[in-house]
């Protein structure tokens, strides 16, 4: 915002997470295998190593980017929201079948039915079907 006004009236603006990793190809492969994400493209750098990959999740995008020395430290947290408990359970079963690092098993809370799995870079992926509580706060 500039002086209290929006910079653009573009209604196609999107927000999507950027994940920094030392091995973009491995993280993209993990997302496809463990969480059923879809890879839309990979881009190599000048040395041939994959530096960027885009993963798709329903209507959203997740951009994986190479972490350069001294830049972009620390893990990220990503929320993958689905419509219902059955979808959460199916993704949980998929993650278990891949021997993924599940850091929070299936659980019910006031906010969501969910589980959390960490990727090889220790980013936390929170897979959830919200209960409606957060929607009541959003409105």
Plain-language structure description:
- With 139 residues, this protein is an alpha/beta fold.
- It has one domain: Roll (2,3-Dihydroxybiphenyl 1,2-Dioxygenase, domain 1), CATH 3.10.180.
- The chain is built from three helices and eight strands; from the N terminus they run E-H-E-E-E-E-H-E-E-E-H.
- The strands form two sheets. It has a four-stranded mixed beta sheet, with helices on one face.
- Strand 7 and strand 8 form a beta hairpin.
- The radius of gyration is 17 Å and the shape is globular.
- It starts with 17 loop residues before the first strand and ends with a helix.
- The N terminus is likely disordered.
CATH topology: 2,3-Dihydroxybiphenyl 1,2-Dioxygenase, domain 1
Q: List how many beta strands DSSP finds.
A: 8
Report the order of strands and helices: EHEEEEHEEEH
| Rg (C-alpha, Å) | 17 Å
Please report the first level of CATH classification, the CATH class.
Answer: Alpha Beta
Number of domains: 1
Adjacency order of strands in the biggest sheet: 1-4-3-2
Cα distance, first to last residue? Answer: 22 Å
Q: Which architecture name does CATH use?
A: Roll
Supply the number of helical segments.
3
Low-confidence stretches at least 5 residues in length (pLDDT < 50)?
1-7
Q: Approximately what portion of the residues adopt beta-strand conformation? A: 35-45%
CATH homologous superfamily (4th level) name: 2,3-Dihydroxybiphenyl 1,2-Dioxygenase, domain 1
Q: Provide mean pLDDT, rounded.
A: 86
C-alpha geometry:
globular
Major sheet characteristics: 4 strands, mixed
Structural class given helices, strands, pairing? alpha/beta
Q: Considering DSSP H and I runs of 4 or more, what fraction of the residues is helical?
A: 10-25%
């Amino acid at each position: 915002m500039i002086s209290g006004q929006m910079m653009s009236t573009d209604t196609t603006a999107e927000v999507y997470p950027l994940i920094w990793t030392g091995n973009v190809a491995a993280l993209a492969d993990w997302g496809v295998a463990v969480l059923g994400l879809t890879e839309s493209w990979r881009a190599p750098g000048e040395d041939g190593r994959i530096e960027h990959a885009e993963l798709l999740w329903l209507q959203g995008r997740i951009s994986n980017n190479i972490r350069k020395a001294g830049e972009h430290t620390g893990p990220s947290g990503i929320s993958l929201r689905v419509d219902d408990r059955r979808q959460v359970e199916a993704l949980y079963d998929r993650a278990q079948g891949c021997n993924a690092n599940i850091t929070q098993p299936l659980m019910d809370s006031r906010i969501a039915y969910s589980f959390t799995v960490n990727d090889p870079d220790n980013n936390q992926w929170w897979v959830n079907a919200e209960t409606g509580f957060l929607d009541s706060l959003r409105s």
